[in-house]
Amino acid sequence: MTLAKLRQAYTSSRIIDGMGAVFSGYMVVENGRIIDVQKGALPDAVRTEAQTQMVELGEHTILPGMIDCHVHLTMDATPQVGPISTDEEKMLAFLRASRNALRTLHGGVTTVRDCGTQGNVDFALRRAASEGLCVTPRLLLSGEALCMTGGHGWRFLGQEVDGVDGVRKAARQRLKAGADNVKLIATGGILTPGGAIGNAQMSVDEMRAATDEAHNAGKISAAHAHAAQGIKNAVLAHVDSIEHGYFIDPEGIDLMLRHGTWLVATSTPIRNVVTHGLAGGLSQDMVDKAQSAIDAHVSSFKQARAAGVKLAMGTDAGVPYTPHGSNLDELVYFVEMGMTPMEAIQVTTRDSARMLKMDHLVGTLEVGKCADFIVVEGDPLVDISILRAPEAIRKVVLNGRLVMDRDASQFLVGAAFGDQAVIGSRFFDA
Q1: What is the per-residue pLDDT across 286-300, written as a single tens digit (0 to 9) for each?
Q2: Which residue from 367, 197, 229 is spatially nearest to 293, judged by alpha carbons?
Q3: Rounded to an integer, what distance in angstroms lies between the CA atom of residue 190 and that of residue 197?
Q4: What backbone torsions phi and psi does residue 305 show, to the nearest 5 degrees?
Q5: At what angle do helices 329-336 and 267-280 cross, to 10 degrees?
Q6: In terms of pTM, does the model score above 0.85?
Q7: Closest listed residue to residue 101, CA positions, set 64, 130, 156, 139
């Protein structure tokens, strides 16, 4: 009997299924899929089968693998963010991305959407994972973001393109390279020197051309958008999600509701820039922009949530002072802004999977879905902040494989499994 055929039965006094239920029970995993999950005692017939490996977790909590819809794996949370242009920089960026992907897994996040990187490094990372050279979360990738000439991120994140035809061609190039998501820059940003955070940038028609191409290919699109007009422009261009959205106004909220647009609010990075930025070497201008975003964000987020805007979780991990592996800080901020711990968990699992159009595979603990889950010490429904403590994440399972185990004699980093290809493949239909 090979490892791939081994059945695991996990028992726990607390299973949070991502759909709003919490119960004492068990979950059975085979060939990377959940084949049973129930409340109550594990049947003796399953417990005594020779091929069943028992994993008794006691008071630990089982949760679906967490999903971060906005990361930058090649960025290292340092104050200076530079371009990836030379061959040497690409090699270094690949090594950083591989390490950061593993840190993200160890932090309890089993699926990420990378929202922009230069040099096709993210696509190389996916290929390396598919060949068993590294272990990553499930990867949804964007390649380079698309921005106007001189727009936010032009130097370190994106490709400068102008006009409907230019944007359409660039979107097709991203999709040809293997992008799952087309990332657009609709407004100014914090990290581009001299750019106002509130300025609208790409036009509705330009963004609509890219979004149409993404949707025609069965993919999704996202827009970096801070300020009110840029948010509305992106929604009118039919993007699937607004990233950040700090200065959204009531008209924008109404538009998002009418178009079914998701909000990925990223509370973590602006807080970290304000807390650490000046001491770490960021300019006063950048810190001031982040502070203005915080002041608006809490109020606008509460308004959007109260109105019923669809929410998904994202952290912008990799930008200055937001390191990979600390992704679950975002849930603490969700709760601070009015969510219950259960709601914060559902946004980060079930709802984020829905936004990424992966809810047939991941996001909840249901029969037939991929066995992506984490084991946590304690009860996050009582204290959500335990999720931000690295030592509280005891085990991480990706596609049925144990990729991190703090309770083992040594820390697992993910061996090269014989069927490692499923860890790196897009959307994980296998």
Answers
A1: 888 888 888 899 999
A2: 197
A3: 6
A4: -65, -45
A5: 110
A6: yes
A7: 139
